[in-house]
Amino acid sequence: MIGSILGDIAGSVYEFHNIKTKEFPFLTPQKGYTDDSILTLATADWLLHGGDCATYYFRYATRYPCPLGGFGGRFREWLRQGQQTGQLRPYGSCGNGSAMRVGPVGWAFRTEEETLKAARISAACTHNHPEGIKGAQATALCIFLARDGKSKEDIKNTVEAKFDYDLNFTCDGIRDTYQWDATCQGTVPQAIRAFLDGTDFEDCIRTAISLGGDSDTLACITGSIAEAFYGIPPALHAQAMHYLPTHFQQIVAEFEEKYGPKIH
């Protein structure tokens, strides 16, 4: 799970100031966790303690209302309506929020069927558009397959066959023309491709951020997959934890204790 958070932090300052190169300071004091990490941790908390996942997303977002970069507009409206009515209803989004917060799901289950079911549940409480669900499921499945020791080629072929994503491009080939796209269909394939093109965990993150666009979310999704495939260097794991408040550190530690970290 810490791979999602590391990607988010590394990309945080480039979300609105894109950088089309892999050469940049990886972690600096100016960077920090965003809504991507907050909601990823909410997913982990839900998986650890059960209940309604929408309640966890609502609780975390209202407890931590001002992350770096803020929450998305439609998600903020979902929060506002929940506060006013006490009801948390999905709003048909195909945004990439469903994919950026799903990382823990990929670690928590023993079968592909269970993983896809939980990914659907985690998405559908807000992002119940078919593309929103698809993006979450594709991301979670990549993590599951990477944990299971599958090769990059196996992961690519499985995701293409199951979700009809076209991954026959390279990040080098699209970098100059890729633009901001906060939908799942405009983010998840690119994030998966960044993982496929990367040579180690950090290189995967750098590749994702170098595309531009919604940099922190791209890197969050890529990082969630790259962690399961490559593991996390202990020094990077420790650095990421230093960015997090105590409660977040406790959730990470509890989740890794139950489901296992991937430290290289």
Which descriptors would you attach to this protein?
mainly alpha, ADP-ribosylglycohydrolase fold, globular, 264 residues, 15 helices
What secondary-structure arrangement, pairings included, does this model have?
Layout: H1 2-11, H2 35-49, H3 53-63, H4 73-85, H5 97-100, H6 105-108, H7 112-124, H8 130-147, H9 152-163, H10 171-174, H11 188-197, H12 201-210, H13 215-230, H14 234-242, H15 246-259
Describe this protein's structure.
This protein has 264 residues and is mainly alpha-helical. The protein has a single domain (2-19, 29-259), classed as ADP-ribosylglycohydrolase fold. Helix content is 62%, strand content 0%. Helix 1 packs antiparallel against helix 13, helix 2 crosses helix 15 (246-259) and helix 8 (130-147) packs antiparallel against helix 9 (152-163). The protein is globular and about 45 Å long.
What is the name of the CATH class?
A: Mainly Alpha
Write the CATH homologous superfamily. Answer: ADP-ribosylation/Crystallin J1
Rg from alpha-carbon coordinates: 16 Å
Order of helices and strands: HHHHHHHHHHHHHHH
**What is the CA-CA span between the terminal residues?**
14 Å
| Second rung of CATH, namely the architecture | Orthogonal Bundle
Q: Would you give the CATH topology?
A: ADP-ribosylglycohydrolase fold
Mean pLDDT: 96
Largest sheet: none
SS elements, strand count? 0
Low-confidence stretches: none
Derived from helix and strand composition plus strand pairing, the structural class reads mainly alpha
* Number of individual domains: 1
The helix content is 55-70%
Overall, the morphology is globular
Binding site for Mg(2+): 34-36, 214, 216-217
Cofactor: Mg(2+)
InterPro entries: ADP-ribosylglycohydrolase, Ribosyl_crysJ1, Ribosyl_crysJ1_sf
Organism: Phocaeicola plebeius
